[in-house]
Amino acid sequence: MSEIGATPVGEAIVAQLISNLPFAAALGSEHSAMLKTFMEHMPLRGLLSFSGGKFTELRLTEMLRKLNGEVG
Questions:
Q1: Which domain of life does the UniProt lineage start with (predicted)?
Q2: Residue 22 belongs to some domain of the structure
Q3: Structural domain that includes position 47
Q4: Cα–chain-centroid distance for residue 38?
Q5: Angle of CA points 5, 39, 44, to nearest 5°
Q6: Distance (Å, rounded) from C-alpha 51 to C-alpha 12?
Q7: Is the pTM above the cut of 0.70?
């Protein structure tokens, strides 16, 4: 995930992903840096496990297409 967050498009995607995680709100803002670091070191497939079903394989494919410039 750290490579994704290094681009402007990727940075926006990572921020959205973090805000949509089911446990993100429970952690509060004081833990946001820890959560961001955790996400940066997570492989993309980890999004499927940690999203509580909110992040699907279809969304992962769409995200990769957007990062690769295949969609607007």
A1: Bacteria
A2: yes
A3: 4-66
A4: 11
A5: 80
A6: 17
A7: no
According to the model, what pLDDT value does residue 25 have? 63
Q: How many domains is the chain built from? A: 1
Strand locations in 1-72 (E): none
Q: Is residue 72 in some structural domain?
A: no
Tokens of 43: 């492989």
- Is 13 in contact with 63 (CB distance < 8 Å)? yes
- pLDDT tens, residue by residue, 20-54: 776 666 666 666 677 777 777 888 888 788 777 87
| Top-confidence residue, 64 or 1 | 64
Question: Is 71 contained in some domain?
Answer: no
